[in-house]
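User: What would this chain look like folded?
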Amino acid sequence: MTNTPYMPFYTKNATVCSMNDLASIESGVTHITVNNNCGNENTAASLYFTRFTQLKELVIGDNCFMNVDQLNLIGLSKLRSVVIGENSFTQHKNDAGEDPNRHFYLKNCPSLREMRIGCYSFSDYTVIDIENVNALETIEIGSLSRDSYNFRYASLELKSILIHSE
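Assistant: Here's the prediction, encoded as C-alpha cells.
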C-alpha cells in the first residue's frame, strides 16, 4: 500500500509509567510500552485495554501493575503481540501466592500471534482464560529452565483454537 495525501501512514506509539499516563493516551494508539516498575499505584483493581481499538502491540516491562487484580485484553481485533516481563501482575515477587480474586482474560483477539509472559508474572492469579485467539502461534509463559510460578494455582484452558495441519 502506498502513501497518498488522502491516506497518510503513521504509527502511534505510547510509552507510559503510571495509571494516569495510561488513562491519558489516545484510544487510536497502535503500540503501548509500559516501562519497568510502573503502574503500581493503588488506584486500579481492573485494567481494561478495550478502548484501544487500533492496538497492535502491548509490551509491559518487569515489576509492573502489582495491584491490578484483573487484566482484560478483550475484543482487540488488531492486537498481534503481547509481551509481559517478569514479576508483573503479582504481589508475590519471585514467589507464588493464591488470590481467588485475581483473573486474566484474553478473549476475541483474532489477529494475536504471540503472547510471552516472564517468570513470576501472574504468580498469584487463579484464573487465566484464553478464548477465540485463532491466529495464536506462540505462547511462552515463564521458563522451562527455572521456577516460574506463573498462574501457579490456575488451570489453563484454551478455547476456540483452530489447529492447522499440513
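The helical segments are 19-24. If you want, I can go into more detail on any region.
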